Amino acid sequence: MHKRRNQVLVEFSFWNSEDMMKTCEPGGIFELRSYQLKPGTLMDWGQEWSRGIVKRMDAQDKPVGGWYSQIGDLYMVHHLWSYQDLQKRKEVRESAWAQPGWEEVVARTVPLIRWMESSILRPTTYSPLK
Predict the structure, then answer these.
(1) What is the pTM of this model?
(2) How far is CA 22 from CA 29, 61, 62, in A?
């Protein structure tokens, strides 16, 4: 092992993952989107995403959870989304742009980001999200 990193994450107050996990696509895939924010912008990010999550759900998106780091790499935000497959992901993400107000959420949050990454995940056989 060359390097190891840990984070302690806290769920955003507007993102109730316990309820949202119930909407996961059985046998589907997950997308983990991670954002490194500029220092001092976490509150702005949370404010925008409290509105943005509604827009995404209106587009039939399946949010699973949203967290921010409290220990470890600070100003990190992670979102987990559930999709039937990559094609459904593409369709749902495209339909989000048709939702009134989504473009404004993106326009206000993109300047807050230093970098981001996206990973596609498949649940293990023992995962409660499978």
Answers:
(1) 0.87
(2) 14, 13, 10
Measured in residues, the chain has a length of 130
Six-digit token string for 51: 């509105």
Spatial distance between the Cα atoms of 20 and 97, rounded to a whole number of angstroms = 21
Nearest 5 degrees, angle CA 62-CA 11-CA 22?
A: 35
pLDDT in tens, 11-50: 998 887 777 676 676 778 999 999 999 999 999 999 999 9
Distances (CA, A) of 70 to 9, 20, 78, 84, 108: 6, 22, 12, 31, 23
First to last CA, the chain: 29
CB atoms within 10 A of CB 14: 14
Separation of CA 118 from chain center: 9
Q: What is the pLDDT of residue 25?
A: 64
Determine contact, residues 79/66, Cβ cutoff 8 Å.
yes
29-37 and 113-121: which strand pairing?
A: antiparallel
Mean pLDDT, residues 102-126 taken together: 94
Is there a contact between 99 and 59 (Cβ–Cβ < 8 Å)? Answer: yes
